[in-house]
Design goal:
Layout lengths: L1 H29 L4 H27 L2 H18 L59 E3 L6 E3 H7 L4 H10 L20 H13 L8 E2 H16 L5 H14 L6 E2 L1 H16 L2 H5 L4 H14 L6 E3 H9 L44 H5 L1 E3 H14 L14
Antiparallel strand pairs: 1-2, 3-4, 5-6
Helix pairs in contact: 1-2, 7-8, 11-14
Length: about 400
Amino acid sequence: MGVLMSRRQTVERVQKVSLAVSAFKDGLREQPSTRRRAEAGTARQGTLEQEVQEGDDEALAGPSQPEESSASKAAWERLRDGRGVEPEEFDRANRFTPPAFIRPKRELHDDEPPDISLEQREQIVNDEMCEICEVWTAESLFPCRICHRVYHDGCLRRMGYLQKDSAVEVTETAHTETGWSCYYCDNLNLLLTEEEMYSLMETLKNCKIIPESCLTLDDFLHYKHQVHKQQFEKTMPEAKEEQAALQFNALDPDKKGHIEWQDFLSHESIQLLQKIRPQNALLRLLTPKERERARAAFLALDQDNDGFIGEGECRQARHTWFRKHQKEMLSCNVSISHVGPISEGSPASSRNGKSPEKILPATKQEETRSIDWPGFLRENVAYILAARPNSAALHLQPLA
């Protein structure tokens, strides 16, 4: 409405000035001209014509401002709706229509502890029909390693979710232990409710973050400093800044000097979930496949079968099993996430059957503190969720 009023006022101003110029010209023709009057009239005419020209320029410049704001508005709308792809990147004539993402809603019982038994295993059953075209074609369907959905690679291409590089990833890893995350599970931002998403958008806007842009280390640290100052009303300490720098390096595994927008958004989404929701609510986000992998991880660490593991072993799982493995660690040479114990036949295992990740030494205090199955889940749930995206970036850096 403000833009429309501004344009109308500009047009009215131009019309008034045009009438004044016409009247002035008519007056010059009717009155005898002297040199002094002619010079004054010329100067006045030049001034008025210049004002008319400025008014015309303003009128022409008016429509360009809404176009710039509409582009920015579209980017924020894509962020709000969980869409991470520019519409103009697709040839819609040969594409399927992308789905309308519906953000989850909090339930009354979400904060209550869920019943996730260690002894009772869950049966994992994938869908029989493609999530996109709803057609069954047996072995050509590719399952998601997080949820129950299955897909055709052709349908994923026509949706615009499968490009050349990711096509190799899907075909080579979807049926392996490491697996592939579908476009629902790959986007951690879709775990946020509408209220949580608006809260994140407000933070990004206040910190002058441009959506769909890459962030350098300086940009990332400046953003973290602003967020810390807004939250605690004091400067971020050096220890926090060092941790933020480590997180940046974890989000930039290829050492490109910047982090991609989707990786930054996933990191901020899981950070916000940790701040707003209690651990019981986060546990309810785990899928049956993730719970089964967590069971396998705990049972592998519980060597004496007494239902307890040491804190050092829990930390070991956090730094190895619930984090990303770099491309050079994988025999299939793709970027994937791995959640669960690494078996001898796993693509992430080394020749001697042990994890290629460096095992952190446990302190005496960690060795004495025991953690049961529910505690193991609560302390690791955020890292399990953060391992969902296919990106090689580590979206939640474990504390040293």
